[in-house]
Amino acid sequence: MTSAIKPEGSDLASRATGAALRESIEQSARDDGLATVDLSGVQTLAESFADEAFGVLALRHGVDWVVEHVEFHGASEAVLTTIARVIDRRYPVEVA
Fold first, then answer.
1. pLDDT of residue 81 exceeding 70
2. Residue 64 C-alpha from the chain's centroid
3. Residues 50, 83 contacting (CB under 8 angstroms)
């Protein structure tokens, strides 16, 4: 069973912390096929953190991989918007 990955703190900002979260997500996805990320305690998410954690995931593995292997719990609309924005910046979807 997958245990949730819960970043420490309510205001996440540093690239180093984002990289550590990304590594935890990748490891959990390798081990369990799914990484569950609990963002219920997060009030603010800096774009630098989100880019390092989630933008780089999309760049390395593709958006489909993120959708299939990462599950978000408890994230506010603002946090999810920041995540979507950095993923789109790293891996833009072209409309035909």
1. yes
2. 13
3. yes
The phi and psi torsions of 27 (rounded to 5 degrees) equal -65, -45
Q: Which of 61, 75, 74 is nearest to 25 (CA)?
A: 61
Token code pair at residue 94? 């072209």
Query: Which among 24, 17, 29 is positioned nearest to 64, based on CA atoms?
Result: 29
Q: How many CB atoms lie within 10 A of CB 64?
A: 10
- What average pLDDT score do residues 32-48 get? 96
How many CA atoms are closer than 13 Å to the CA of 95, on its beta-carbon side? 1
Per-residue confidence at 49, pLDDT binned at 50, 70, 90? very high
Strand partners, 5: 37
Token pair of 20, please? 């550590």
- Pairing verdict, β 35-38 and 11-12: unpaired
Q: At residue 5, what is the residue type?
A: I
Rounded Cα gap, residues 68 and 8, in angstroms: 24
Farthest-apart Cα atoms in the chain, separation:
41
